[in-house]
Amino acid sequence: MLSILLSLKNRPDRQQKLAQFYETYGGQMLYLARSILRHPEEAEDAVQDAFVQAGRYMDVLEKISDPQDQRNYLLKITQNASYKRLKKHRQEDCVDQLPETPDCCSDETFLDKLCLHWEYQTLLEGLKQLEQPYREVLYYRFGMELTPAEIAQLLERKLPTVKKQIARGKQKLLDWANQSVK
């Protein structure tokens, strides 16, 4: 954040505009980040990340004349920052599940942890093979564990569309899994 403020040092108008965005939309951005991350500290960090991004793209924000569009832009940046943090923590959790040494836990626990790790990696590998709309909804559904209603709201799509994309994506993922087993 400091680097962004320093880069705006010679531009007090941009510093003021960024502060105004914080005053106007900071609460909404924090609310959105908390709804995604569910940890106040993580949400605050995501909002800070979003303002760092906003500082980098002040040229874009200044070109947007409609306050509603500015709000939507800032909320989208916040949403992306929040999901980036959530993804990072989920990947760390998945890796953390693997024991460091094979003799650290019982055979059953070791096998369970190893299977969970492989399942997660296989899911990510399979998702990479899908087309964009299916990859996106399945990632949010299984990777981020969002409900279809949350995905529809996030992607600004109709709920029946998201449900159909999930169903078709699951079929495509099963087809991929069956082909890779052969």
Q: What would your notes on this structure say?
A:
This protein has 182 residues and is mainly alpha-helical. It folds into two domains: 2-88, Rna Polymerase Sigma Factor, Chain: A, CATH 1.10.1740; 98-181, Winged helix-like DNA-binding domain superfamily/Winged helix DNA-binding domain (Arc Repressor Mutant, subunit A), CATH 1.10.10.10. It has helices at residues 2-7, 12-37, 40-56, 58-63, 67-97, 107-128, 132-143, 148-155, 159-181. Helix 6 runs antiparallel to helix 7 (132-143). The termini are far apart. The model has no long low-confidence stretch (mean pLDDT 77).
The first-to-last residue Cα distance is 51 Å
How many domains? 2
Q: Any idea what the CATH architecture of the largest domain is? A: Orthogonal Bundle
Global outline: elongated
The major β-sheet equals: none
CATH first level of the largest domain: Mainly Alpha
**Which class of secondary structure composition applies to the elements?**
mainly alpha
What order do the helices and strands follow? HHHHHHHHH
Percent helix among the residues? over 70%
Low-confidence stretches: none
Mean pLDDT: 77
Strand element count: 0
Estimated share of beta-strand residues: under 5%
Q: Provide the CATH topology of the largest domain.
A: Rna Polymerase Sigma Factor, Chain: A
Query: What multimeric state do the chains show?
Result: single chain
What layout of secondary structure does this protein have?
Blueprint: H1 2-7, H2 12-37, H3 40-56, H4 58-63, H5 67-97, H6 107-128, H7 132-143, H8 148-155, H9 159-181
Helix pairs in contact: 2-3, 2-5, 3-5, 6-7, 7-9, 8-9
